[in-house]
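Section handout 9: paired folding examples.
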Amino acid sequence: MHKTLIIVDNENIALDEVNLEIISFEKYLKDYPKLNEPKTRIINLCDTEQYLSKGYYCSLLAEAREHIVLPSVKVINELRVFNHDEGPIINLQRYIGDLLQDTDQLEVFSYFGWVDNPILQKLGRKIFSQYPAPILKITLSKKENEFSLRIKRNAYSSLNIDQTEIFQHKLNEFVKTVWRVNNKRKPSRWDMAILVNPNEQVPPSDKEAIARFIKAASKHGIAAETITAEQFQNIGYYDALFIRETTAIDHHTYRLASRAENLGLVVIDDPVSILRCCNKVYLHDAFSYQKVPSLLTKVVNSRSKKSLDEIEQGFSYPLVLKMPEGSFSRGVFKVSNRDELKQRLTELFEESALVLAQEYLYTEFDWRIGVLNGRAIYACRYLMARNHWQIYNHSVKKNFTGGFETLPTFEVPKKVLDAAVKAAKFIGNGLYGVDLKEFDNQAYVIEVNDNPSIDHNVEDFYLGDELYMLIMSEFQRRLEQRGR
């Protein structure tokens, strides 16, 4: 039996007719997960309109804690970009009939798929099956003889009195049901699109590596070619998408990965891996919950005196502050005293509701272990940039990054390999680069990257072409698994 928690923006929001445990986001952030807690379902009623808001983090942290959550982060992000996707998702004429005969626009609310209009009941259930969220605002429009659909997630706090009463009734009904997941369509041909950005300064793979990926794909029966974001309108003609452009959530790479997956393509990086790896708050919570060895880390949501005191009680200077999102060492800052701490937190909170504080541990190199479908396939030591405490130094033009050493995985200390594989396991079954530090005979996972660097004569220095073959072999396996 699942326990159900209702999460709201703040404690002043009440649900009078709901006989369930209702807590604020702050309480969920601080008090969960709990020891020996039962299987838990989360209904997130916080406002998710703004990216990196409390509502966004509520669903993100719920997934890290292995709580079943509605809506998922994937749904939140898909609804944010819904109207940017190309091609119809639903045949509107089939569902609305002559409903817009006397008007050009109609707005209705969906509460867990229920709509207060008998004609639109099937449409409400259809939309909820694709975008399961507690409250959806559905706008139907007609211009000349063409119909359009807009879907927006609404916070509970935005409902009026009558809407609140209906919603609470439907909430009580919904918690008694089984939560279901929508099935995906299957692809039909073996062609691969490799997404690249020719203008990217530090791409995940250089041109020579891309050429070797294409060659390896052909040996596994996959015709691969590079495309850019501008060419993505034809993605439905492909069977697989391999993303070799630096990913981010509030970015076209995530939107394209989601669209490709919805069309039935085999996708690496898949959208779930992108949203989990791109946010360090999720990684920290997942590592803590799953007991993955990692550095002491604290989620910070305030720059108040009390918060600064708590940070100083838990950490010694210098310490590291991290933006939830960032790649190639961007968004990571070292602070050496309280004034620097307060100033940097002030800057970071302008962009994100949460910031990570982490203990500082200097090592001469960081490990990078490449993991594919739960198996370590390559290993590198990345040296720190000259006169800098990180691998990348974005403040200089020369000596931008340190050197490297590529090793066979059997020469990597077992504790490092085990920690890397364990960390990747809780992200998914895709292609990941796990960054670790090794100190005093211990391994500490720093983060998991969904879009790891694979450059010619760097990550492939030991395996050579076999590294590209391993990755394309996994694509082939997944395509065959889907009934090719």
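Moving on to protein 2 of 2.
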Amino acid sequence: MMIQRTDTLQTDIYYLQGQSVFMPYLFGNAEAINTLQNLSQKQILSIDVISSASPEGNTLLNKELSADRSVTTMYLLDSLGFALHLVKPQSIGTDWDGLAKRLILSEIPQAEEAASIIRDIPEWIINDGVVVDSRKLRLRKLDNGVTWNLMLDSIFPALRVSHITLVYRPYSQGDFKFPDYAVSLPVDNHTANDAEIFRHKALIYTNKSNLSSIGIRSNLLYDVAAVPNIGLIVPIAKGWSVSADAYYADWSNRDDNRHWRIQGAELAVRKQLMPTPPLFKHLVLRDLHTTIQI
């Protein structure tokens, strides 16, 4: 009997606090995408996606947020050519276990005590239907908040993540390439249904992304000056967009012979140099544009 050799690849997609939008310049996201692209032609056997959140949000919001991150990650995998029916998504909400493990390996003061709180204190302590204490509250009070603030900067960003694990059969010279129907591993109905739900949410995410590429805007300074205005931004190619803005006001007081009249239009062609600014680097050259005013 011939035994099939398989390899495993693990990579991570990171997110900002409270967000589920993919940002290519965040941490190692660009490198993760490049790594996945190198596998797009391999014979993929299974893909596990486990998404989580950091402890700032409440339990329900973190569960929903981690699910949205799984959807975004599945959308990315689909755009890279991976079959969605091979993906097994899982959303764990707040990653308390990951936080405890990272605390033990960190140099944060009171790290062991913080890890003990995570292990021994329930997430919520309820008395007569009222929340009287919680794991998060204990962590916030530890060392007068010093430990919590250190975790905010050094550990929490690593918990806002989708872990991707791919099992694949690498090709070698002379390998026989099985037909597509033999590549997919059988999955149970529960996994298939979960994948279908995530596939549906991914399609909704795609439609939202396409709609958001066309933008409508208004100049707030004109609004303050009582000058109604509206603008439209339309992408025309990768990194290129055109925008059109118009403003008009005709205010008058005939008795006093006073008028406030302004009207005009602007047409601009814009070249976007950096779609998303790097983390912690806000003073960057984002785009160049040429404007014609009428």
